[in-house]
């Protein structure tokens, strides 16, 4: 645990931690010596009154030095705790920024939020409060054990055997807590994710009556699992704590019994026996505190481990010297890629997309259309093959280089809490906001809102409609003025008016940029210079609309199905009687 703290702190924090541990160890040794000095003090009181004041002065000096170290180590503990918070938040934040974008799945929202909140506070609490009890709870008994051998080797041996038994019981307690704490943290993280989902999906839940049918929702199931894991942690931890304190009482009883027996046997003086009994009872305090806090210490140690596991997630490798692309043409060469489930999504895909072209990608669900866009945007790195922009592998361009070259618009638009202007300007603070709004038809939305550009969008854009959010996203992509634009189902769920507005914006984007769009809308597909049909992780058809329609393959079937669907209309039953 202490080793993990050293790994996670910076050099300044490690220096403070070393000094704090030294002060706490000195504090424990002085406390142990003060306890041991009670034995000669009692002996002096009974047998040699002349040395009583000498031993009393030694105890007072040890206690005074102990309290000075206590004050110093406590202040250092808060300083190290602050170092931990600063270092953890900075390191975790910096590390999260280097991870593949695709790593951030919805089920990781709750655990990461809990780790950054309660997890880091638990770790910061370790040096500020708990570590002192651990160090003192070890060094004080160790000092007493060493000193007891001076009194009588048999008493020293009894203390040593008792310390081994207590250490084993303590290890059992911490093992029980660690095993059950992992389950509890997993369940509480899952519950946090479900709570966020529950809050965000209220319209869907209410529309389908799920609120009245809790057996269909995962929130209640998550909370039940969380309650069960918390109960197991509490109950099993309590039983392990009972075992620890039972072992401690057994050890104390054994030491007292041995000391009394040796005194009755005449091999240990009465004064020594009285002193050993006092020391034994006083030694209960630091060890008892260690047992009481062991569960908390283990929970904090688990939090450190989870932080280390997060920091161990491999980031996307970045080049020392990013390459400079020669153009904005895109090439995917023998690309093979699959997600964690092991299923191959793209299998040996080869395609070249010229600079300045407008390419549409169509295909059945699960064929890898969105994955192809994510690989171009470097959400992930390919398993095999290469993705190149301007003749350079995206791994040689680096994440920043790919981000500079691409603007991305997706079906599920996320807007940050703030105003409409804030969300558009995040792409380019000094860009021409009015031009981007006009091309994206966002100006129509801004004009009819009471607060105009200063309208707050709410959490995730909750105050705007889907079409309005999509227009904000298009304006943001326009303002960024990136040479490559990637669009994934940007018009799939829009009404006709918003679809027309977004389609006009897409045509404006395609004028002098390389545009790749995944779409099912006929108007978007027909307008493309080139259409790629993706099926089974490979390009099965390639050409413009007329060529593919004449070929009579997958695209032609897709076109005819959409054409028939476009002509569908709902006719009231009575209309059939009056043609």
What does this protein look like?
The radius of gyration is 35 Å and the shape is elongated. Strand 1 and strand 2 form a beta hairpin. It has helices at residues 2-8, 11-36, 38-46, 52-96, 109-151, 153-200, 202-207, 218-264, 270-311, 369-376, 394-405, 420-425, 433-439, 442-448, 466-480, 496-509, 522-527, 545-551, 554-566; strands at residues 330-338, 344-353, 358-362, 384-389, 392-393, 406-410, 484-488, 514-518, 530-535, 538-543. Helices cover 64% and strands 10% of the residues. A six-stranded mixed sheet has the order 6-7-8-3-9-10, sandwiched between helices. It has a four-stranded antiparallel sheet with strand order 2-1-4-5. Mean pLDDT is 77; it is low at 212-217 and 575-579. The chain is of the alpha/beta class and 579 residues long. The chain is built from 19 helices and ten strands. Helix 2 packs parallel to helix 5 (109-151).
Q: Could you outline the blueprint of secondary structure elements for this entry?
A:
Elements: H1 2-8, H2 11-36, H3 38-46, H4 52-96, H5 109-151, H6 153-200, H7 202-207, H8 218-264, H9 270-311, E1 330-338, E2 344-353, E3 358-362, H10 369-376, E4 384-389, E5 392-393, H11 394-405, E6 406-410, H12 420-425, H13 433-439, H14 442-448, H15 466-480, E7 484-488, H16 496-509, E8 514-518, H17 522-527, E9 530-535, E10 538-543, H18 545-551, H19 554-566
Parallel strand pairs: 3-8, 3-9, 6-7, 7-8
Antiparallel strand pairs: 1-2, 1-4, 4-5, 9-10
């Amino acid at each position: 645990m202490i080793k993990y703290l050293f790994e996670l702190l910076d050099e300044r924090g490690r220096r403070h931690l070393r000094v704090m541990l030294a002060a706490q160890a000195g504090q424990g040794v002085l406390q142990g010596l003060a306890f041991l000095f009670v034995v000669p003090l009692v002996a002096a009181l009974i047998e040699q009154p002349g040395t009583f004041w000498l031993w009393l002065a030694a105890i007072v000096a040890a206690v005074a030095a102990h309290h000075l170290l206590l004050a110093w180590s406590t202040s250092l503990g808060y300083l190290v705790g602050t170092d931990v918070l600063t270092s953890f938040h900075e390191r975790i934040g910096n590390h999260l920024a280097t991870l593949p974008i695709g790593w951030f799945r919805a089920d990781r929202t709750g655990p990461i939020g809990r780790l950054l909140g309660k997890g880091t506070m638990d770790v910061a609490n370790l040096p500020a409060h708990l570590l002192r009890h651990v160090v003192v709870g070890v060094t004080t008994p160790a000092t007493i054990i060493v000193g007891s051998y001076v009194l009588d080797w048999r008493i020293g041996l009894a203390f040593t055997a008792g310390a081994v038994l207590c250490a084993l019981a303590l290890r059992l307690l911490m093992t029980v807590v660690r095993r059950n704490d992992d389950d509890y943290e997993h369940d509480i993280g899952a519950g946090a994710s479900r709570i966020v989902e529950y809050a965000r999906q209220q319209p869907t839940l209410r529309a389908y009556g799920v609120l009245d049918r809790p057996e269909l929702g995962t929130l209640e199931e998550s909370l039940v699992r969380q309650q069960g894991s918390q109960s197991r942690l509490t109950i099993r931890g309590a039983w392990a704590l009972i075992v620890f304190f039972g072992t401690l009482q057994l050890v104390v009883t054994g030491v007292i019994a041995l000391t009394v027996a040796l005194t009755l046997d005449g091999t240990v003086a009465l004064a020594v026996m009285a002193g050993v009994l006092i020391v034994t009872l006083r030694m209960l305090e630091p060890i008892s505190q260690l047992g009481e806090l062991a569960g908390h210490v283990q929970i904090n140690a688990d939090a450190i481990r989870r932080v280390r596991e997060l920091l161990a997630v491999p980031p996307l490798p970045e080049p020392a010297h990013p390459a400079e692309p020669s153009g904005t043409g895109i090439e995917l060469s023998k690309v093979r890629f699959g997600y964690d489930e092991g299923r191959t999504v793209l299998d040996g895909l080869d395609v070249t997309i010229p600079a300045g072209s407008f390419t549409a990608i169509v295909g059945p669900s699960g064929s890898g259309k969105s994955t192809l866009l994510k690989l171009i945007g470097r959400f992930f790195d390919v398993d095999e093959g290469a993705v190149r922009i301007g003749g350079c592998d995206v791994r040689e361009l680096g994440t920043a280089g790919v981000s500079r070259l691409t603007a991305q618009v997706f079906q599920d638009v996320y807007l940050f809490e703030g105003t409409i202007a804030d969300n558009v300007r995040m792409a380019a603070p000094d860009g021409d906001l009015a031009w981007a709004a006009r091309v994206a038809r966002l100006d129509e939305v801004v004009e009819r809102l009471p607060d105009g550009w200063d309208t707050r969008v709410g959490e995730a854009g909750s105050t705007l409609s889907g079409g309005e959010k999509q227009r904000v996203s298009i304006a943001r992509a326009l303002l960024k003025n990136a040479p490559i634009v990637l669009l994934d189902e940007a018009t799939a769920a829009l009404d006709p008016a918003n679809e027309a507005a977004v389609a006009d914006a897409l045509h404006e984007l395609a004028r002098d940029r390389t545009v790749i769009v995944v779409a099912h809308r006929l108007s978007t597909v027909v307008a493309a210079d080139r259409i790629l049909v993706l099926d089974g992780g490979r390009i099965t058809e390639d050409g413009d609309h007329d060529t593919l329609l004449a070929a009579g393959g997958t695209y032609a079937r897709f076109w005819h199905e959409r054409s028939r669907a476009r002509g569908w209309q709902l006719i009231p039953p009575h209309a059939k009687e009056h043609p």
